[in-house]
Amino acid sequence: MKDILTFFDMLKAILRRQYPMPWKTFILAVLCFFYVLSPIDILPDVMPLLGITDDATFILLVVALLQKDLQKYRASLQAPKDKVIDLGDVKDHKK
Length: 95
Description:
By secondary structure, the chain is mostly helical. Helices cover about 65% and strands about 0% of the residues. The protein has five helices and no strands. It has helices at about 1-15, 25-35, 50-65, 65-75, 85-95.
C-alpha cells in the first residue's frame, strides 16, 4: 500500500514539475490508467469480484515494475544532511 501511495505522490510531483519524469514510469502509468478505465478487460468488470481483481492485479504489477523509480523518488525526498556547509563556521575559523 505504501508503494501505491508513493506512486501517486511521484506522479503529482512529476505533473507539478517538481521531479524529473522517468519515461518508463510515464509510459507504464499511462498504460495502467487506460487499462483500468478501459471497458475492454481480460476479465469483464460485470463479473462479481473477478472483474475488479484483474484491474488490481495490473496496478500491483505496474507498481512492482517501478520499484527502482519509487526508491529514487523516496531518496530525492530525503534532505542531504551531510553536505550542508555553514558559512558562519568558515568565517569564524579564518584568522
